[in-house]
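User: Here's a protein and a ligand (zinc ion). What would the complex look like?
Assistant: Let me lay out the input and then the predicted complex.
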Amino acid sequence: MTDFPRSLPAFERRFPDEATCAEWLLERRWGSGFACPGCGHDGYWRLGRKVLTLQCKACRRETSVTAGTVMHRSHLPLKVWFTAAWLVATHKNGMSARQLGLQLGLGSYKSAWLLLRKLRAAMVDPDRSPLGGLVEVDETSLPFRAGDAPSGPRPGRSHEGKLLLAGAVEIRGKGPGRARLAVIKDYSAAALGAFVAGNVADGGTVVSDGWSGYRNLKEVKHDPKVIGETPAHLVPPWIHRIFANAKRWALGVYHGLRAEHLQAYLDEFVFRFNRRRSPQAAFARLLGLATAIGPHPYAAIVAAGLKG
Ligand SMILES: [Zn+2]
């Protein structure tokens, strides 16, 4: 998407109405060729439905351009979804449901909340590949609020009022590549080992600035990853900057964290961080369009289990 709009007026010119949104979806999904999810045939008719729909010339199956995306069967116009995705993808810090509802002129808070929740759910790509190469790993804790209590830990019970999380970031040249953040239940070798196993590719090199718990990662079964000290030229470690930015962001945007939503906050932070230089990729991802759809549309559609 080389024509990704960088400003709101540019966005309005690019997507003035429902038809342009539908055409964009058609091009994005099947620009390199349609394949019927039912039979694989590539011939189709365009049907003039509420949302642009393709009908297979062979088996007559109908496939909406929104099938399998977060917009499917929504009562909201495509234009509202596109505007919401554009706002969320291009806003540096993200926004609350109330802010989004005001920006979009939505009548009810509930509509805005549901819309934002669906966009957030699309932030984690289930097919994302694990981090590779040189990967910094570390852990930290965050204070959280329980119910309406003021922020800060409550005395007397360990980990009460503190949330533990693990983080990893690829090092690409002199800077950070992609990152991952995850809630962990403790700092045990088992918990850290599971985090590394789930987020770092086999053959990757895990580096840490030193907590001895990582030494025990060697004991994790079937874990071929190499554990090493952070090379001197990487100081200060990028993962510490990411932790600091995530904490500042959570406090600024959400005014403190709640335990039950922590992973969702972390996912949103990571989404923004990993796409900080590619708002067009963030926009497509938020609409539920995996970038994988394109070269192999039929396989991608079947893999996603779309129903048409
Ligand atoms: Zn067909």
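Summary: The pocket of zinc ion is lined by residues 36, 38-39, 41, 56, 58-59, 61 (CB under 6 Å).
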